[in-house]
Amino acid sequence: MAGNITLTMIKPDAVEKNLTGAILAKINEAGFRIKAMKYLQLTESQAGQFYAVHRERPFYNSLVEFMSSGPIVAALLEKEYAVADFRELIGATNPANAAPGTIRALFAESLQRNAVHGSDSDENAILESDFFFSQLERF
Ligand code: UDP
Ligand code: MG
Questions:
Q1: How many other C-beta atoms can be found within 10 angstroms of the C-beta atom of residue 112?
Q2: Looking at the predicted structure, is the pLDDT value of residue 3 above 70?
Q3: Does residue 6 line the site of ligand 1, with CB under 6 A?
Q4: Residues with CB under 5 A from ligand 2 (ion)
């Protein structure tokens, strides 16, 4: 089963701009199946835990503040080659460098407020999925 799931978040900037539906449509059109999904607001502590790998980076505190500033949509997605194909669908971290037609090129406003998260490896996809979803919440 390794390699067929990835974890996304529609970030507070995109939710606030009512882009949730448009982004989910792009995700479905690209062939991803939604295995689990929830609408929630992270606490600062939870956002800090999710991004703990970036703890030492200069943007960490600002990222945690942003990611806990409003509601997000977290979703567990399934597709062959999910991690790689989803990173391709969302585009580069900085929307200025994101390929035309990618979710970040279309919907992100800045390097930080970049509309969506996507797991960077199969291992992290599993860890991030377990952060948000119990087995009973997966279909
Ligand atoms: N980020 C930021 N400043 C930076 C780099 C990243 O605010 O210089 C934010 C941005 O929201 C990014 C997140 O931190 O999506 C995680 O960074 P990462 O390098 O993991 O990028 P991603 O995997 O999301 O493309
Ligand atoms: Mg990352």
A1: 16
A2: yes
A3: no
A4: 120
The minimum-distance atom of ligand 1 relative to the CA of 67 is 11
The count of structural domains within the chain is 1
Kindly report the CATH number assigned to the domain that includes residue 12: 3.30.70.141
Angle in degrees, 0-180, between the axes of helices 122-132 and 82-90, rounded to the nearest 10: 80
Pick the catalytic residue: 8, 117, 118, 133? 117
Summarize pLDDT for 36-92 with one digit per residue, the tens.
999 999 999 999 999 999 999 999 999 999 999 999 999 999 999 999 999 999 999
Q: Are 108 and 51 in contact (CB under 8 A)?
A: no
Active site residue 117: yes
Encode pLDDT of 76-114 as tens digits: 999 999 999 999 999 999 999 999 999 999 999 999 999
Domain carrying residue 58? 5-133
- Return d(Cα 20, Cα 130) in angstroms, integer: 22
> Please, are residues 35 and 139 in contact by the beta-carbon 8 Å criterion?
yes
With H, G, I as helix, E, B as strand and everything else as coil, classify residue 38: strand
Q: What is the pTM of this model?
A: 0.97
Length of the chain: 139
